[in-house]
Specification:
The complex is a heterotrimer of chains A (74), B (259) and C (356).
Chain A: E1 4-11, H1 20-24, E2 30-36, E3 42-46, H2 57-61, E4 67-73
Antiparallel strand pairs in A: 1-4, 2-3
Chain B: E1 3-5, E2 16-18, H1 36-50, E3 57-61, E4 76-79, H2 85-95, E5 100-106, H3 107-113, H4 115-124, E6 129-134, H5 164-167, H6 173-178, E7 183-190, H7 194-211, E8 217-223, H8 227-230, H9 234-248, E9 252-255
Parallel strand pairs in B: 3-4, 3-5, 5-6, 6-8, 7-8
Antiparallel strand pairs in B: 7-9
Chain C: E1 4-9, H1 10-20, E2 25-28, H2 35-44, E3 53-56, H3 60-72, E4 77-81, H4 83-88, H5 90-98, E5 103-109, H6 125-130, E6 140-142, H7 147-164, E7 167-173, H8 174-178, E8 180-185, E9 211-212, H9 219-239, E10 243-246, E11 253-256, H10 259-274, E12 279-284, E13 286-288, H11 292-299, E14 305-308, H12 315-323, E15 329-332, H13 342-355
Parallel strand pairs in C: 2-3, 2-4, 4-5, 5-7, 6-7, 11-12, 11-14, 14-15
Antiparallel strand pairs in C: 1-8, 6-13, 10-12
The chains are: A mainly beta (74), B alpha/beta (259), C alpha/beta (356).
């Protein structure tokens, strides 16, 4: 059976580190970085990219639209 | 642009699932981290994009945190005096009936100073969409009590908690307008989880369709968080909202068209 | 094309003139002494003939904000009210001026302050000319003195409003609004299909989005904008002054009055001249821009000026500024809704100017 794999791209500079995406991610892909971006926020990033299933929950809840989502069947 | 990416091989145009709409401008939104305004703007812009309405839309922005909505959504916008957006929208829709006209207002704008304009536009059944962002507080001016603040809620002008005896009970505007024959579709939603975001988007899409029918006002309340005003972190504020705001402002349709 | 002759009330003439001027929308609220305007428009039902929108709003505040919305779409829109209602509209008017939108506002003035009285007065001069709303802005103010002018100034008002992207105020009063006179009405103009390039009508791909706002949080930007407004008002001062003179050529004394007071003063001039007093009348038609230059010139010719208004003395301050100390200026006026009589004017001219 084909497995669905996803990949997200986070616009680091625009992320405000609100963590709502991290909480909405069903697989634990997202974590908050230990360094800040240009606005001073601990930005979100795909810390465990191999777990991503491209469900786009993160992009759905992001108040700033900083996440782009891709998905494919492998 | 600095990007944090997942598995690079999957990042191909044919694999695209979601991308920020171009109708949302590239300006960084002025809202606090995690604020529901951002999400609401985003999905409104998405619906305008998906329905091909950019050249047909005229929006009215309020006074409040979202006064600068016109910097974030790429459509023709009029900024209205505090509370008066439904009156402004009334004229726009009556004079340009083919256009998609919406107002976007906070709880002070819609339920305090603008109470008369809200009720009368709905009572006349103006053929517009009113989007009501209810976070029970005045964010822009520093966290004062709103007509929709909960009993006992501590704000900068109710520092000991809202005392209903002297300050009244929270005003449920959505319930009030649902009783008016002039409203066609009245619903209460939220944008703090993916499922709720999808439901709210569906509600906005319905309102777009209904406006073409000329059957009355569509009114969408979005119960939202105000991390700064409530003095909480974003994730914490969403939880507080679920536990405290939703019991008072339950989500769901209050009025739907007869099938 | 032929003008149509009718016998009408001032208020009715405004309403009929608005339809004929091709107005797109009227938003109003009942208040004495101008409710006939809204009533006439409802009966005339121009929605059926020209497509003009006529809406009774829930308040004067709602009405002025409807005007803002319509004007921001590039449409010809107007609202009418009387003094207390005009007070309510001030925030909206400031917004309209700050967003540089065209529109017509008509004030059929009644006695104040507060709920006041329903009889005519001229005590809204300061409110109309000096401010009313907050911020550094000016309205173009037209002061009709007859039913004909109430009709004519609708079209003139819209013309000036769109020329300068500025709100225009017609400052009438309860006497002219209620009196019946002959009026020649212009033929029906077609409603304009021209869309100003700044208007919000839906953003096509060929332009950036239009934003109608009066907000600029950057003080530098806001100062530049205010300078732009002031330059506009200076241009209006240069080009749009209007006034009428009555027997000023050989005048030794001058009356300055507008609206109903001017009608009274015209009779007063005739009475005084019969008594051998060489007095003339200057009637400002635009109160902003004020005919300061002309009054200053006449001040060099006469021995004294009596400013006549139905108020405690508001326009007299602008007369004093215009005269700049050249000659004595005094005020005479009844208040409380009482209309001055020609005899009283002559009395006061004698006692305040000639005698003193």
């Amino acid at each position: 059976m084909a497995k669905i794999r996803g990949s997200i791209v986070v616009n680091v500079d625009k992320c405000k580190g609100c963590e709502v995406c991290m909480v909405s991610c069903p697989t634990g892909t997202i974590a908050m970085a230990k360094e800040v971006n240009g606005m001073g926020y601990y930005y979100a990033y795909p810390a465990n990219p191999e777990l991503c299933i491209g469900c786009a929950n993160c992009a759905m809840v992001c108040p700033d639209g900083v996440i782009t989502v891709y998905k494919t069947k492998i | 642009m600095i990007e944090a990416t997942g598995i690079k091989e999957i990042i191909k145009p044919e694999n695209l699932v979601y991308k920020k709409t171009k109708i949302l401008t590239d300006n960084t939104m002025s809202y606090c981290p995690g604020c529901g305004h951002g999400t609401a703007h985003r999905i409104l812009a998405e619906v305008i994009d998906e329905e091909g309405l950019q050249s047909e839309t005229i929006g009215v922005s309020p006074v409040g945190c979202s006064v600068l909505l016109y910097n974030f959504i790429d459509v023709d916008i009029q900024q209205a005096a505090h509370g008066r957006a439904p009156a402004v929208a009334t004229a726009i829709k009556r004079l340009l009936p083919e256009k998609f006209v919406f107002t976007y207002q906070g709880d002070g704008d819609l339920a305090a100073i603008g109470t008369a304009e809200t009720i009368h536009a709905c009572n006349r059944g103006e053929n517009i969409l009113i989007i009501f962002i209810n976070n029970g507080i005045y964010g822009m001016t520093g966290g004062q009590m709103a007509p929709t603040s909960l009993p006992g809620m501590k704000t900068s002008t109710s520092p000991f908690g809202r005392d209903v005896k002297t300050m009244g009970n929270p005003l449920k505007m959505t319930d009030i307008v649902a009783t008016l024959p002039g409203t066609y579709y009245v619903t209460r939603q939220s944008v703090h989880t993916p499922a709720n975001v999808r439901k709210t988007k569906k509600a906005i899409r319905k309102a777009v369709q209904y406006q073409k029918l000329d059957k009355g006002t569509c009114f969408i309340e979005i119960v939202a968080n105000c991390p700064s005003g409530w003095r909480m972190a974003p994730v914490q504020s969403n939880k507080w909202m679920e536990e405290n705001m939703f019991p008072y402002y339950p989500l769901g349709d209050l009025k739907t068209p007869e099938e | 094309m032929e003008k149509e002759l009718r016998l009408m009330k001032g208020n009715e003439a405004v309403a009929e003139a608005a339809i004929r001027a091709g107005a797109d929308g009227y938003f109003g609220y009942p208040i004495t002494p101008q409710s006939e305007i809204l009533e006439y428009l409802m009966v005339a039902n121009p929605a059926e003939t020209t497509g003009m929108v006529v809406l009774q709003a829930e308040s004067e505040i709602a009405a002025i904000n409807m005007v803002y919305g319509g004007a921001a779409c590039g449409k010809k829109v107007l609202t009418t009210s009387s003094s207390p209602g005009i007070s309510l509209k001030q925030e909206g008017i400031s917004y309209i001026a700050g967003a540089e939108l065209p529109c017509l506002i008509v004030n059929v003035v009644r006695g104040g302050p507060g709920l006041g009285t329903i009889q005519p007065s001229q005590s809204d001069y300061f409110q109309s000319v000096k401010g009313g709303g907050h911020g550094d802005y000016h309205l173009i103010v037209l002061a009709p003195a007859s039913v004909q002018e109430m009709a004519d100034f609708v079209d003139l008002g819209f013309e000036l409003a769109f020329k300068y992207r500025n709100p225009v105020l017609m400052l009438s009063d309860g006497a002219i609004g209620q009196m019946m006179e002959k009026v020649y009405l212009s033929p029906q103009k077609e409603r304009s299909k021209v869309i100003p390039d700044w208007a919000t009508t839906g953003k096509p791909s060929t332009r950036e989005r239009n934003i109608i706002t009066s907000l600029d949080l950057d003080p530098n930007g806001q100062e530049i904008f205010n300078q732009k407004l002031q330059a506009k008002y200076n241009e209006i001062r240069e080009k749009e002054v209007r006034f009428e003179e009555f027997q000023c050529e050989d005048a030794e004394y001058l009356l300055v009055a507008y609206g109903t007071s001017a009608r009274v003063c015209q009779k007063a001039v005739q009475l005084a001249r019969k008594q051998g007093i060489k007095v003339g009348l200057l009637r400002p038609i635009t109160l902003f821009p004020f005919p300061a230059k002309r009054i200053n010139t006449l001040a060099g010719q006469v021995k004294g000026i009596l400013s006549v208004e139905m108020s405690a003395g508001q326009m007299v301050e602008d007369v004093l500024l215009s005269v700049n100390g050249k000659v004595q200026v005094k005020h005479f006026g009844r208040m409380g809704g009482i209309v001055t009589t020609p005899d009283e004017v002559v009395e006061n001219l004698k006692s305040k100017i000639i005698g003193g």
